[in-house]
Amino acid sequence: MVILMKYFERLKRKINRKKHINTIKHYLNNIDKKSVINIIYMIAPFVLIDIFIRIMGIEINYTNHKILAPILFSASWILLFVGLTTSFKNKIGKLIYLFITILFISLFLVHGVYFSMTRNYFDFTLMESASEGAPYILSALANCKIAIYFEFIILLIALVLGLKHIPLNKKNNYKKLEIILAIFLILHVLSPLTLGKANKDLTWNSWRNARNIYNSFNDSNKSMKTSGFFEYSFRNFYITFLKTPEEENEEDMKFLNSAYMNKKASKNEYTGIFKDKNLIIIQLEGTDKWLFNEKDTPTMYKMMNEGINFDKHYSFYTGGGSTFNSEFAVNTGYMTPFSYTKNAYSFNKNDFPNTLAKTFKENGYAVNAFHMNTGEYYSRTVNYKNWGYDNYYGLLDIQKYEDQSYMLDRELILNEKFEELLFNENEKFLDYIIAYSGHVPFDNTDGVCKILYDLDMEEKAKKGESTEFIQMTEEECVRRQAKETDYMVELLINKLKEKKLLDNTAIIIFTDHYLYTLKDQSILSKYKNTSNNLINNTPWFIWSNNKLNSKTITKVTSQLNILPTILNLYGYKYNTNDYIGEDALSKKYKSLAFFIDYSWYDGNVYVEDGNIKNGKKMNADKLEEMNEYVNYLAKKNDLTLKYNYFEK
């Protein structure tokens, strides 16, 4: 009896299996070739966008065959797009399809233009600085790789073909829509699971974990790699504009309290050597290290060799707002967050009690900042006020210009109003000057280079020389613009001499970022290592007409070292633990620069993804210790800003 029952069960399963097979066959038979062709044409623009984004990211190793999530995410979104289109009446469906495809093709172009310039995918947080970048949009479009425009045209053609192949629906199919939404939700919930488990413990390499990257979504390139184009677009938009702020975390606060518990003082042979001197800080615009020479920048080159030169200095490049990021680091001692996405200028409501300006102001200094642009850019008026400056002065705020002479750095010194404000003969002063003339475009038919070219032609005409137009190369423009900034420094020195202030003034000069704005990046390859973050090597030096012996510092430094180094030079007592960086002139200083992707360099090893990349050697335990230390500093930086730790 038992054997008979088992036989009937097997027979029943065979019959059921045949029924399922017949059902599938019936379904497949009902799918005609035209329907398949229509679907292929409809999904084509989305599939092509995904492919082109992957091709774009080849130079940053976009594809990781071990990560399935980007494919699943993209498949789920494409299913949803096509499902929405085919579930409604013809006109509505076509409008939905048209809106979605135009939106994502446009986003693809934005990514292409931005990636061509920065090697980073576009991030919606950049929209917060859209007004600052608007004047340079034409230059960015001109610098975009030609392949992006060819791909853009292909996508437009695919869009037209997709529209033509949308099936004619006479009524809305809500049942089909429910099924599509259900499948989408299931796929979307399952996709992140393929990334594995997040690492919740504090370890230096948590940011390498694919699930951690997806959860934090703070690094545009890594986030794109783990999620794919469509998921990246929606999630990046959500985190930037819709996600509610996180509440204070008890563990985070314990970490911060522990980090700031120890009070440390700094004193060395340089302590107080500039006591009561005036201070002028000049932040250069993209004046890269290779532009410092006797021909292009004779004044600054001489000053560099006469003063304290930090030869292995590195700036921070974050893809957007790198100029203001340097201003933020030098003035507050903190850096743009590493583990979450937020622009530096958005911390204007945070409390920073130990800024450069506040410290000097407490010691009887007038503190002012000077630049050509208005205080609206990067919200400088608000930020500089928050940092403790008496005023932020922009040439365009105090004077109406009939021409574009305000773009020349010389105007910072030659402008009569600025001259009154810069050189205070009645009290000690700190002037923070932000140069501009090294800005894009590097073309003598536009921008700063054109103004300088026209001035040079006027001089030639006076001498009776030929003024026939000659197109300058990009490198020639860069060098000519650097010479303009150097001329501003020469004028500054002369004005200090004229007012008998030179001997009582120290000057500190550094560059905001390397020259990443070059259209022809091969120019950089001639002069520096461009294979990794060591491309960020930029100038920083300290100069005084007296009380200073020339010296080259070979320890590695970054913008985070500038503020504590200045405070020690002026003899101000401060808690070294209140900053991320340390006094670079201290014998106890650990040589270190770390970057936004957690890579770091100590003058010997360059470490990326936790591994040594430059062929040098380091003890395994020491390497692990340094990786953890970099993670500790980044976490201290990020949580301090996130929770406004110094709020009273």
Layout: helices, strands, pairs:
Blueprint: H1 2-30, H2 33-56, H3 69-86, H4 90-118, H5 130-133, H6 137-143, H7 146-164, H8 174-190, H9 210-216, H10 220-227, H11 229-242, H12 250-259, E1 278-284, H13 298-306, E2 308-314, H14 322-332, H15 356-362, E3 366-371, H16 380-386, E4 391-394, H17 395-398, H18 411-414, H19 416-422, E5 429-434, H20 447-462, H21 474-498, E6 505-511, H22 522-525, E7 540-544, E8 551-558, H23 562-569, E9 593-594, E10 600-601, E11 606-608, E12 611-612, H24 620-642
Parallel strand pairs: 1-5, 1-6, 2-8, 3-4, 3-5
Antiparallel strand pairs: 2-7, 6-7, 9-10, 10-11, 11-12
Helix pairs in contact: 2-3, 2-4, 2-7, 3-4, 3-8, 3-10, 4-7, 9-10
Essential attributes:
single chain, about 50% helix, about 650 residues, 12 strands, 3 domains, four-stranded antiparallel beta sheet, 24 helices, Alkaline Phosphatase, subunit A, alpha/beta
Tell me about this structure.
It is a single chain. By secondary structure, the protein is α/β, with parallel strands linked by helices. The strands form two sheets. It has an eight-stranded mixed sheet with strand order 4-3-5-1-6-7-2-8, with helices on both faces. Strand 10 and strand 11 (606-608) form a beta hairpin. It contains 24 helices and twelve strands. The chain is globular, with a radius of gyration of 30 Å. The protein has helices at residues 2-30, 33-56, 69-86, 90-118, 130-133, 137-143, 146-164, 174-190, 210-216, 220-227, 229-242, 250-259, 298-306, 322-332, 356-362, 380-386, 395-398, 411-414, 416-422, 447-462, 474-498, 522-525, 562-569, 620-642, and strands spanning 278-284, 308-314, 366-371, 391-394, 429-434, 505-511, 540-544, 551-558, 593-594, 600-601, 606-608, 611-612. It folds into three domains: 1-30; 32-242, no CATH class; 258-642, Alkaline Phosphatase, subunit A. Helix 2 packs parallel to helix 4 (90-118) and helix 3 runs antiparallel to helix 8. The mean pLDDT is 91. The chain starts with a helix and ends in a 6-residue tail after the last helix.
